[in-house]
Amino acid sequence: MKKSLIILFTILGTLINAQTVKIKRGVVSLDGIHVAKISDKSGIYTIMDLKETPIYTIEFVDKSVVDSVRDSYIKLNRIYNQDKTLELDYISPSAFSGEEKSAAYTSVKSLKIIDERGVNIKNLDELFKNNPKRKLDTKTKMPIQ
To answer: What whole-number distance in Å separates Cα of residue 56 and Cα of residue 58?
Structure first.
């Protein structure tokens, strides 16, 4: 009985706190509220606020390390103060979602740069200050080193 209650509350908590990320005509919406804009130019996705001021870019990199191992990650770069480029892991909502959806989903879910109030510059600054490490699996880590 105790296990079933824990499972029930876990599922309910996930459903209640889950945010839906949707993109339609370049506008990123969180739970139906427009929060940012995204545009694509030759594989580099520019994230903008609603006034169309560019804030940062995301570029998807997929390279072959050795014959059977691929390394996929994103390069995050600020539009202003481009001194530093971060290489980070990304998440995708599904195997069939495109790069545009993955860029928005990663910005909301894992990096927390976009929230219900729009593009959060404070979180973006923190991300560049702390420079998180990529989580490589053993198959990828061995050939890179």
So the answer is: 7
* Residue 99 token pair: 């790069």
| pLDDT level of residue 10 (50, 70, 90 thresholds) | low
Q: 90: which 2 tokens? A: 């990304």
Of 81, 21, 20, 26, the closest CA to residue 52 belongs to: 26
d(CA 83, CA 12): 43
Name the residue type at position 12: L
Distance in angstroms (rounded) separating the CA atoms of residues 71 and 48: 27
Helix (H) or strand (E) holding 138, with range, is helix 138-144
pLDDT in tens, 76-133: 888 887 778 888 888 877 777 778 788 888 888 888 888 888 888 898 888 888 877 7
Residue 42 φ/ψ region, left for φ over 0, alpha for ψ in the -120 to 50 degree band, beta for the rest: left
Q: How far, CA to CA in Å, does 125 sit from each of 1, 36, 93, 111, 129?
A: 46, 17, 25, 11, 6
Which position has the higher pLDDT, 137 or 55?
A: 55
Task: Round to whole Å and give the CA distance between 16 and 78.
Answer: 33
